[in-house]
Amino acid sequence: MIIRSKIKLVALIGAILSVVSILVHLLLAKYSSEDWVIYKTDTIADLYVNFGEQVRYRRLWGPVQSLEALQPHASPRNKYPVPKEQNNGYIYAKIYGGFGKIRSSICDLVAIARLLNATLVIPEIQESTRSKGISSKFKSFSYLYNEDQFITALTNDVIVVKSLPNSLKDARKENRFLTISPKSSASPSFYINEVLPKLKQSKVVGLVLTDGGCLQSILPPSMADYQRLRCRVAFHALHFRPEIQALGHQIVGRLRAMGQRYIAFHPGLVRETLAFHGCAELFQDVHTELIQYRRKQMIKWGNVHELRVDSVSRRSNGSCPLMPEEVGRLLHARGYPPNTLIYVAGSELFGGQRVLIPLRAMYNVVDHTSLCSKKELLNLLGPETPLPSNLSNPPPSKTEAQLIEEWKKAGPRPRPLPPPPARPYYQHEKEGWYGWVGETDKEPDPSPMDLRSQAHRLIWDALDYIVSMDADAFFPGFHNDGSGWPDFSSLVMGHRLYKMAPAVTFRPNRKTLAGLLDGIRDNLYHPKRNWTIAVREHLNKTLGIEGLITQSRTSRPSSFLSHPLPECSCRTSQVSNPVKGRDGEWLHGGEDMCPDWMLRDLVSLRSNALKDEIIVDEPEDDVYPEEQPESVSGGGGGGRMDGSRQSEQDEEMDPDD
Predict the structure, then answer these.
(1) What's the pTM value of the predicted model, to 2 decimals?
(2) Which of 220, 237, 414, 500 is positioned for an S-S bond with 649, CB 3.0–4.6 A?
(3) Per-residue model confidence as pLDDT tens digits over 618-643
């Protein structure tokens, strides 16, 4: 009996404990299991997302491994005497053109002054001197660049002075000195044989530069130090004035404060180059007329020979720019997510903000006007003299007595009602192109406001140049256009190649991309997988050695600063497969080995960089979900445009002291 009662007690206690246990588990499941599951799921998702973002981040922004051996090294390699006060005379110059032409011309002028053993007078930038009422704080050159830095940086290369001696100023005002207008392809022998004797005779020679330069791009190997001098001028001596540099670095800081890297994109939509290549049909209505009008002017100047050209065929062979919408699709195919920050550079955007609407719909697009206040931009210009309004003065209002007298003299009644007053013209309708294109076939001469705006563009281009140099990636919309004029994109690409060769700088072949884009023209926003892979492979190739070889063939013959290799760089390791052109010039691998002191300084940095480096020359496999397999159509081949080297190269000739 006692044993049975103990068994019942144990069974009862076990049942009670089981019930309590079930209740505890139910309570735990109700109040804590949901939070634990969510926490666990979120943690796994976060780890997966973070890992995926890191992989894509490295693929999109990582350094190009094949170019990490290139280091900037523009110092003279051979015997390089310091200039003496006693020389052959003075050279002064007037430079016409925009930002790119000015920068390239200054570099050529310094090289010519060294070649002729002459003193260089700070050149005059006509875009600023022609402007009416710009701030008196700045002279011509100092409106854009730092004069003192320019003079100091070139102490061992050329003697630079701010003006002619007082004894020669009056003679220049009276036009007693010879003035020459050399072409951008002028050879060193032209200056030795033609200019030097006249310089020795008169002691002063003036140059007028309109083509964006005054010395041929490719020089003989014996004049390699003159090429390095060009690099020292462009990349070390030409500093923007402190106010421009300060605001430019502030813009970069504001971009960095957004917490992500950014792409600098220069559309290259400039009216001059669009008219030169006949790309009028890329636009509509008034913009087509404006391009054709400028092309008609170029026919009179002798730059082009026919008015009507097929814009579609020009675009297919790579002679027209990539439109911002197309660039947005290419960046999407490359793998950049929609929240990528894109900085639009360039002071002139032909077509206005309308052409950027598709790109703004795809990415986060900003420019210097959205990142700076109006006050900050106006402070760069300094105090300017007010200009009269372009609007015609309205007729004076009539008194009531005059109106009554006119009514009495109006004739017999009934009379028709007077016509309504003409619609007033607003300021934005009179400024720029829209003020004349609808009223007359002849473009009026630039107004004082137009001239001032052209001077302001130099400042805006300088800001964009600073931001583009510090960008994590750079994409040109219209570089190496074949016109022979230096362009903004090519100068930025050359500077980035010199300063930071492994940085992500796209060198797209527009002919190849035009063929790929034509293949999906009817389905631009839903490309197939194979199209995305083809675009990705092409863009990846342009970042590395293949892009440099193409750039050397196409850009270097017209602008040395767009591809300052091999003279202005050195290598930390030998090249396994160097490449030469048909004329024996180096296309890849012709750089000297870096000096020992540079190699020692790079050892510690290299060891840290090897941990994070990623090869970006390989195609990526990840694509967006909407992309489906399909064969690629219309992808015109590699389309390399081989630039021919000039037939004759002049050997270095030293002028007499």
Answers:
(1) 0.80
(2) 220
(3) 444 444 434 444 444 444 333 333 43
